[in-house]
Amino acid sequence: MKKILITSSGFLGYHLANKLKDNRNNMIYIVDTVNKIDKYFKKLCQNKNVEYIEGDLTKDHVYKFIDLNTEYIYHLVDKKSTPLKTVDSTINSTIKLLNFAKETKCKKFLFGSKFESRVNSSEFIKEDNPIILEDIYSQDNSFKISKLVSENYVANFCVDNKLEHNILRYFNIYGERMGDKSVVPSIIYRILNNRNGKIELNGGNCLRSFLYIKDAIRNTISVMDGFPQGTFNIGSNEETPIADIVDILSILLRTDFEIDEKGKPLKTVLRKNPDLTKFEYYFGKQENLEFSLGLKQVYQWYKKEYEK
Questions:
Q1: Other CB atoms within 10 Å distance of the CB of residue 163
Q2: Contact (Cβ atoms closer than 8 angstroms) between residue 199 and residue 259
Q3: E strand or H helix at 14
Q4: Rounded to an integer, what distance in angstroms lies between the CA atom of residue 103 and that of residue 17?
Q5: Among candidate residues 198, 196, 177, 143, the one with its CA nearest the CA of residue 187
Q6: What CA–CA distance (Å, rounded) separates 186 from 182?
Q7: Is the dihedral of CA 40, 115, 95, 167 positive or negative?
Q8: Quick one: 224 exposed, middle or buried, by C-beta within 10 A (0-12, 13-18, 19+)?
Q9: Tell me: the pLDDT tens digits for 61-86?
Q10: Domain range list for the chain
Q11: What is the DSSP secondary structure assignment for residue 77, as one 8-state letter?
Q12: Going by DSSP bridges, is the β-strand pair 240-241/173-174 parallel, antiparallel, or unpaired?
């Protein structure tokens, strides 16, 4: 049986575990601290090959409860309640988890990151694109900085210790059970709460390449199971203006919503889309769910949750 550790019960971690559990030869351990366990996560943990271990991976004692025969580690870090907690959790959990992987002879370590560039590039962003940090004192940069430090540590630690590894940079992933803060669900909630036909947007002309969660999970597993090491972008080549989300849902709901454009926030980039040349070279061009179809599914899921 293949023993797999996933370090998040959040959006990516939940969907990853939900897919991996379908293979009964997988034994999945999810380690995280969950303030409130929802019905979806509870149902996931009812599977015989899924075990939830409540614990903070920055604490040494938690590792006593993780199977020492763990072969594959997906380290997917979520934001915490404060910037300082985010930095501490991301960096320290990465260091401790890598040492655990070394001691237990883990076969492969995958670190889930997020690429955010403040450069308004006219080109798609490559894995080696330069990164600019405008202000190290900005709380908005805490998650980005902690991810970058962790990426560097993962790369150097794994090379020094001959541990197979990958770093994945996720771009604009959307789907069910992703909360309400990201672009897609935030617009969906504005529509669900709408009373006057106007939908407020900030930067509706900004371009994003949205990738449905199931496609992102498929690509994640492909990288873990594949032979090439290093960094890969995970995203889509299908560019969409943010305002089109409202237009697509207007057609779906047969309602003419008026967009109330407030202007792009100062630090929001006009274009944030991945170059997938490297990924497609090793894994081939993927058939992803068309954004309008995925958006329809996600809207229906959120509407159902909203009406409960």
A1: 19
A2: yes
A3: helix 11-20
A4: 24
A5: 198
A6: 6
A7: positive
A8: buried
A9: 999 999 999 999 999 987 767 888 88
A10: 2-170, 175-209+238-273+289-306
A11: P
A12: unpaired
CA distances from 172 to 32, 175, 231, 308 (A): 23, 10, 17, 27
**Residues 11-28: pLDDT tens digits?**
999 999 999 999 999 999
CA distance 172 to 176: 13
Pairing state between β 164-170 and 50-54: unpaired
The CATH-assigned architecture of domain 2-170 is: 3-Layer(aba) Sandwich (3.40)
Amino acid at 126: K
> Tokens in use for 281?
């070279």
For the segment 102-123, what is each residue's pLDDT rounded down to a tens digit?
Answer: 999 899 999 999 865 444 556 7
Q: 218: which 2 tokens?
A: 């498929």
Superfamily for domain range 175-209+238-273+289-306: UDP-galactose 4-epimerase, domain 1 (3.90.25.10)
